[in-house]
Design goal:
The protein is of the alpha/beta class. It has 7 helices and 7 strands. Helix content is 38%, strand content 17%. The structure holds zinc ion.
């Protein structure tokens, strides 16, 4: 049951935003976490831009794979997937993949992108997902949430301002891969598109692994849809930036 205090700040509607900056630690996370939602937003006229934080060069079990060429291939896979989802603007930070993301530099780089592109809303993986063991995900999620929350302040990451950028206020932050969803988006008509976008990542999902992932995502989407009168949902957490500091009930809102 949602506590009364949650109504103190309203939960923004992503479909009312002009521009959503979608951030992922690795090429493929946006499709897996929110690909159908982004496809639906694109077709509803919301501008989306994708920002990929790492180069994806560690995404292999095979030590004979060259990481530089893997990063190049993964970028092509992501471009193909984004085209299916309907996003044309892709930005890359190219930090090294593999769990050693430098927090301060990542936060500054994301703040720089926010100040350059001026989105009303940011979508990123939830850094407060219990048991999340991948540091790239935790640091990307937190760096993006912090940058979204503080980029309007001139003394936050001031190095961006020396580059000619200006402070910018983000109104909403949405999280995929979340344990505390508050927004259930009917994506029944976009599900096949999401699965096709995941299939673009051939380096990550050979057929058996891809099938397992897609079956899991579909079972979850069907289960989460049960109380929402549709067949398949993506469940995300949407908050205003006001929720992101000293607001103890945010996880329940
Ligand atoms: Zn990832």
């Amino acid at each position: 049951m949602k506590p009364e205090i949650c109504n103190f700040f309203s939960v923004p509607d992503l479909f009312q935003q002009d521009h959503l900056l979608c951030i992922q630690p690795h090429p493929d996370d946006l499709e897996i976490g929110a690909g159908a939602t982004i496809a639906k937003l694109n077709r509803a006229g919301v501008k989306t831009t994708w920002l990929t934080v790492t180069d994806g060069s560690a995404g292999t079990d095979d030590p004979s794979v060259d990481p530089v060429s893997l990063a190049r291939t993964r970028r092509k896979e992501a471009e193909k997937a984004a085209a299916l989802i309907g996003t044309a603007d892709l930005t890359w930070l190219d930090f090294a993949d593999g769990g050693s993301l430098p927090y301060d530099k990542t936060r500054s780089a994301i703040a720089g992108v926010i100040r350059k592109l001026k989105p009303e809303a940011v979508l990123v993986c939830d850094p407060w997902l219990p048991y999340e063991a991948h540091t790239d995900h935790v640091r990307t999620g937190l760096a993006a949430a912090e940058a979204a929350f503080l980029s309007h302040m001139p003394y936050f990451c001031p190095e961006n301002l020396a580059d000619g950028l200006e402070p910018h206020k983000v109104e909403a932050v949405a999280f995929y891969y979340t344990a505390y969803p508050n927004t259930f988006i009917d994506v029944t008509n976009y599900w096949e598109l999401k699965l096709a976008a995941i299939d673009c990542h051939a380096t990550q999902f050979p057929p058996a692994k891809g099938k397992l992932l897609k079956d899991y995502l579909t079972a979850k989407a069907r289960q989460q849809a049960q109380d929402h009168g549709c067949e398949l949902v993506e469940a995300i957490k949407v908050l205003s930036t006001n929720h992101l500091h000293i607001f103890e009930n945010a996880w329940q809102c």
